[in-house]
Amino acid sequence: MRTILTFFIGIGLTASLIAGCGDDGGGGGVSVVATTPQVADLVRNVAGDRAEVTQILPANADPHEYEPTPSDAEALAGADLIVRSGGEVDDWLDQLVESSGTDAPVLVLIDHVKTVTTDGDTDPHWWQDPRNAVLAVAAIRDEVDDVDPGGAGAYDANARRYIGEIERLDRAIASCIDRVPPAQRKLVTSHDALGYYAARYGIDVIGAAIPALTTQAQASAGETSDLIALIRSEEVNAIFPEAGVSPALEQAIADEAGATVGGQLWADTLGPEDTAAATYLGSLRANTRTLVEGFSAGKTACDLP
Ligand SMILES: [Zn+2]
Question: Is there a single domain that holds both residue 43 and residue 140?
Fold first, then answer.
């Protein structure tokens, strides 16, 4: 009798555990596809373990020149929600959505943040201002609440905690960059990817090796020689190559202008797993340390949370 009772209690427990797992949506209850590593990281922080997040772009790759694969279309076909960065960075998604036949909602984050327009073009690199990441996280939270209402409590708590972390880091970055004299805060990068970061923290963008919002453009010989002249006259200390983009042009420009090549910046991508820049917040920390060191020729360092 006791054995039978134990057996039934056992079945009851197992059944409720299984039901519990299903209710939580943990381990793949909701399937979200995100385009870029930084968007995928924002989604993971909100979704926690209730959703399975598939990231289309690998780490350390240039989103502007990404060519989607058949497996990307398969991932979209099985998605409950698609989250894209928006603008020229991942405009290849439209074609992919069409070919996959998915009817999942597509959340376009650039529509929920404060954008800047340069020469008539919307700058797609909005995540470089952490205050925009806060707006994006709120949009992701609202959307996953709709797609998976059972998880709303967890998503809201995750979003609140993560927004707190973003805001703490944003304040620390601002106070660290404030310690660099304004005349030394002069930025030259691979392409025009850090405009939002520069505007947020009071940095003067002198120019870019590729003077465009996309890495797909090319500098003319005249533009490159103008930039070299500007680097000399502005006494720019260092120019910064970007991860995922060849540094050859930066090296040539730095050599010609008598500047040094600073550390690599995480502009449009994140680092591989288990590296300091594998997360969005990690990339902001790494960039800030690299920039402050390059601006100040190693005289200022940052203590960041
Ligand atoms: Zn870019």
Answer: yes
β-strands 81-84, 30-34 pairing: parallel
Integer Cα distance of 88 and 124 in angstroms: 6
| 130, 154, 173 - which closes a domain | 173
Per-residue pLDDT of the chain (305 residues; tens, 9 = 90+): 343 333 333 333 333 333 333 334 344 479 999 999 999 999 999 999 999 999 999 999 999 999 999 999 999 999 999 999 999 999 999 999 999 999 999 999 999 999 999 889 999 999 999 999 999 999 999 999 999 999 999 999 999 999 999 999 999 999 999 999 999 999 999 999 999 999 999 999 999 999 999 999 999 999 999 999 999 999 999 999 999 888 899 999 999 999 999 999 999 999 999 999 999 999 999 999 999 999 999 999 888 99
Indicate whether 52 and 162 sit together in one domain: yes
Distance 218 CA to ligand 1 centre (A): 13
Ligand 1 mean position, distance from CA 101 (Å): 28
Could you tell me if 142 and 230 lie in one domain? no
Q: Assess if residue 12 is contained within a domain.
A: no
Q: 289 C-alpha vs ligand 1 centroid, how far in Å?
A: 20
Q: Is the pTM of this model over 0.85?
A: yes
Domain encompassing residue 36 = 26-173
**Ligand 1: distance of its center to the CA of 50 in Å?**
31
Q: What is the DSSP secondary-structure string of 198-230? A: HHHHT-EEEEEEE-SSSTT----HHHHHHHHHH
CA 244 to centroid of ligand 1, rounded, Å: 10
Domain boundary among 107, 141, 173: 173
